Amino acid sequence: MAAPDHLVIFDTTLRDGEQSPGATMNKNEKLRIAKILEKLRVDVIEAGFAVASQGDFDAVKAIAETIKDSTVCSLARALDKDIDRAAEAIRPAASGRIHTFIATSPIHMKHKLQMEPDQVVEQAVRAVKRARSHVDDVEFSCEDAGRSELDFLCRIIEAAIDAGARTINIPDTVGYAIPEQFGETIRQLLNRIPNADKAIFSVHCHNDLGLAVANSLAAVSNGARQVECTINGLGERAGNASLEEIVMAVRTRKDLFSLDTRIDSQHIVPASRLVSTITGFPVQPNKAIVGANAFAHESGIHQDGVLKHRETYEIMRAQDVGWHTNSLVLGKHSGRNAFRTRLLELGIQFETETELNEAFTRFKALADLKHEIFDEDLQAIASHTRQKEEDGRYGLVCMQVCSETGVVPKARLTMLVDGKEHAVEAEGSGPVDATFKAIESLVDSGCNLQLYSVNNITSGTDAQGEVTVRLERGGRIVNGVGADTDIIMASAKAYIEALNLIARGGIRQHPQVADV
């Protein structure tokens, strides 16, 4: 068990974060994120839901084989097949955990599980014991604890601890809790459960009412010693408690919390950018800690105060969370070895020389277009090099777009479809619209465009633009991301990547789909 003054950070970006619509990651992308989480010194990495699909299983196993300094965890419903599959996936880990759960609220037990409370307790105990037969480190979660009856929570948690659970998680699954009430729930559980001292109590809060971080901190104030969170607050619906906000709130307000995490906070901003690039979920400028405006001061009074004494308007240093540490490092005269070395410093390592050579070629091409290459540019190069290595039905060979005042915009593209070149063209209301219509005139995907978003990767008029395209077809949602100094080219890349993801298919089982 952790010391009383240590707050365990349990990161679920790779599991709960991936449940954001369109945020599905492949194995290599999950490994990249896992490596930067390890650099962050996250205590526990929930690597996935091993039984969900073969892809999830392979990713969890690959992370378990790679990560040495963090515990690697797999989620499992309170079912034998889930638990056994999770155990198999985390077996190579230096430190492994099985996280099993079952719903405990009246509405879930009645309508989802269709089980009586006694049956739910019996199933929970069986699941924890089976997990303990595989590993010593078992976590048990009461799904929808935020709407569960306190007496029943006390009963099932006591039984789970007796069965061998060493971490007890209290999730606010639907973001229903209010801080004062949620903190009191944690206090009551710790006081009323006889064997509460034999487990670490954890919380996992969703942000449906914008209170995930507040609820998590209220729980910590009342004795919780693990917080489950994600980079950038990523997660289904309105997301989860944000790792960076939890960590910096506890660190900044030690006068109230009297504890700390082991997080190396200088890796927070790089981790945020990597997750944003891979998932295609841009970080809003006014997002706490990692947003572009988080340490910007517009007001003259604020600027004057900061110049005279930083702490007049800043409660933490930008450098402490990774801002301004990733200054320009490379330019057009930089060699291959310097390029490789900086990538390794950023936690980026290619599996083959072919991939490295492709990335270096992209770097040189970019360096010809813009004078200064920043770490964010390198992250984008790495991501899009790996995307190119993935098999895809569609590819872009070349394009020409005409946009002139008083003339209808027109796009001409040469595309690869299953290895064969096709020339297409279309008109549109603007250059991006014409480009997308030209692509669709060839592929006829039947997709609905749900989101088109443009963000600059770095500052300056020569910055790469990063475009996110979200497509939906038949209830399946994917995000495509493209980067280029030419925003129309970036748009085409993003749209084609999304089409490839749709074409690739793949069925994952959602962890809350019950067949108990």
Automatic annotation (TrEMBL):
Per the record, the pathway is: Amino-acid biosynthesis; L-leucine biosynthesis; L-leucine from 3-methyl-2-oxobutanoate: step 1/4
Q: Which residues constitute the signal peptide according to the record? A: none
Q: Which residues form a coiled coil?
A: none
What biological processes does GO assign it? L-leucine biosynthetic process
Q: Does the keyword Metal-binding apply?
A: yes
Q: Where is this region: Regulatory domain?
A: 395-516
**What is the reaction catalyzed?**
3-methyl-2-oxobutanoate + acetyl-CoA + H2O = (2S)-2-isopropylmalate + CoA + H(+)
Q: Where does Mn(2+) bind?
A: D16, H204, H206, N240
GO terms, molecular function: 2-isopropylmalate synthase activity; acetyl-CoA C-acetyltransferase activity; manganese ion binding
* This protein's UniProt keywords: Amino-acid biosynthesis, Branched-chain amino acid biosynthesis, Cytoplasm, Leucine biosynthesis, Manganese, Metal-binding, Transferase
Q: What is its EC number?
A: 2.3.3.13
Cofactor(s) needed by this chain: Mn(2+)
Residues forming the Pyruvate carboxyltransferase domain are 7-269
Q: Which domain of life is it from?
A: Bacteria
Mind telling me which GO cellular component terms the entry cites?
A: cytosol
HAMAP family per the UniProt record, alphabetical:
LeuA_type1
In UniProt terms, what function does this protein have? Catalyzes the condensation of the acetyl group of acetyl-CoA with 3-methyl-2-oxobutanoate (2-ketoisovalerate) to form 3-carboxy-3-hydroxy-4-methylpentanoate (2-isopropylmalate).
Cross-referenced PANTHER family, in alphabetical order? 2-ISOPROPYLMALATE SYNTHASE 1, CHLOROPLASTIC-RELATED, HOMOCITRATE SYNTHASE-RELATED
As for family, the record states: Belongs to the alpha-IPM synthase/homocitrate synthase family. LeuA type 1 subfamily.
Q: Its quaternary structure?
A: Homodimer.
Q: Which named protein is this? A: 2-isopropylmalate synthase
Organism field: Marinobacter halophilus
Supply the source organism's classification.
Answer: Bacteria, Pseudomonadati, Pseudomonadota, Gammaproteobacteria, Pseudomonadales
Q: Which gene encodes it?
A: leuA
